[in-house]
Amino acid sequence: MTEKGTSGINQSPRPGFPQNPWKALSFRDWLYVPHIFSRTERALFFFCIALTVISGVTSGTLVFLHLTHPVPAIGGIFREGEVRPPERVNPLFLSSNDTDRDLVELIFSKLFVYDGKGNLTPDLAENYSISADGKSYTIALKKNAKWHDGTPLTADDVVFTVKTIQDPSYKSSLRPNWQGVTIERLGDYSVRFVLKQPYSPFLQNLALAIIPRHIWDNVSAEAASLSEANLKPTGSGPYTFKSMSRNAAGAVTKYVLERNRDYYRAGPYIETVEFTFYDSPDQLVQAFEAKNIDGVSVVSQKKVDFFKSLGGNAPAVKMPRIFAIFLNDSNPVLKDKLIRQALALAIPKDELIKKVLGGGALPIESPIPPGTFGYNGQINKTAYDPNAARAILAKAGWKDLNGDGLLEKKAAKKKDKPIPLKITLATSDWSDLKNSANAIKEYWKAIGVDAEINAMPIDDLESNVIRPRHYDALLFGEILGHDPDPFAFWHSSQIKDPGLNIALYHSALVDNLLEDARRSTDQSRIEADYQKFQEAIHRDFPTIFLYSPTYTYIYRSNVKGLDIQTFIIPAERFDTFNSWYIKTKRVFHA
User: Fold this and answer.
1) Cβ burial, residue 265 (10 Å; 0-12/13-18/19+)
2) CA-to-CA distance for 281 and 230, rounded, in angstroms?
3) Which of 271, 353, 377, 510 has the fewest Cβ atoms within 10 Å of its own Cβ atom?
4) Over the stretch 216-256, which tens digit does the pLDDT of each residue have?
5) Is the preceding peptide bond at 268 cis, omega within 30 degrees of 0?
6) Which InterPro entries does this UniProt record tie to the protein (predicted)?
């Protein structure tokens, strides 16, 4: 048999040579091949093979990376450090215990939640509508939400939660928010809230955690606050209660949650969440340094740089809170707007924030802080100008008559003693406020104003100073909502206790703006009213606005998915915890 060569000449195979010599080599022959090379050739041979393998793997990896992208994967443990152990993990009985609030965020679901940027978004709510008159809110619920024991979550649970809050025998801390509200069951997955009067910020009330009727319906109001279900709760949120540990004294030392595998939303991705409780803030710092915890609220802004040096991420989160000096114009000196402005010109806000708060705040010029709905960024800044402050006081007739550096004014009658420029500044004995007050005393002294600091426990301050309005000036704070609704703090109807108008401010224009904002359901109109309100406050200058504190949350860089820019209380950082993740996997592009 012959075959045709490339020359076109018929050729016969040469005896003893196969048609494909490489094909005839056995595996053992291939192992012998390197031995026919010299040492240098053998090194080059293996180098070429290794280079081929590495190139192939690298090329394949690059192609895989090009065709895929990382996404969250289920797995990992997140360890949170806290100082105070839980007491009652129940949204009906929330107190000042931040740990209780944190756990409620993870275990229970709400009708609505905030997305980390201050936007209210549906959670258990599938959709909602508001009546034209602003008095009726209809909520359709998701149909796939279940309690951790597998029982479906329905409208009955929502109705039960609200009516339990409204029942005075339960003494719920949320009751004031729900007085005058009627709730109606429209179907298994639909409810309606009816208000007596339009109230535009009402949607904030619907950021409400729901409790299971089938568990709490058989617990009396008297026994509710002591029920075991407060520490071993059944919720419908992204995490379920797994276990807790106690020390010899019975105090909870560790609280463990596990991922809800039947959660109705995307996620959660982190498999286990552990809360460990420490005796002091210093122990929290040590635990983070020892890598025993992954997340911690900063106990002092001055430690932020230290946490960063340990590899912690430290975003500063805006909070709708303000601290200011509220001036009582019953003091004749403070009736004069120019005097009030002179006192403001003497305070270097940036220095105060750095000196007292370690930089953990933003200077403010109005009653609505930056990052909050309705904030007016066009308000002119009150510059630090002590010389201008001195000039204003001198023009008003205040002089240093005895050479002690403090200002006085001659009395109307020659026989009377000069009137000193003296102001009593009341505040809480909380360290940040007390230290701020002492710093302000020195700033005012530099322009000749004698300030006396009256710092006292918060309970005494509220009962003896704030409620009866017995102060010249009050250094205090106000907590706003995502919709700030300044009515309670600035409407003239709120000047007397139990109202919260501690600036004792009254303006027909401002009253009308705040009333209109409450009645309207048009967000753009509400925002415009809030901005005009701030302009009016700035013109009248009843208060010296100082700062809005920021909140710093420290977490390790291996924790992803956090996007927190603003919240009212620190617990809201967990509103989006179902999106946090530690593990990842790669999937092909859609």
Assistant:
1) middle
2) 26
3) 377
4) 999 999 999 899 999 999 999 999 999 999 999 999 999 99
5) yes
6) Peptide/Ni-bd, SBP_5, SBP_5_CS, SBP_5_dom
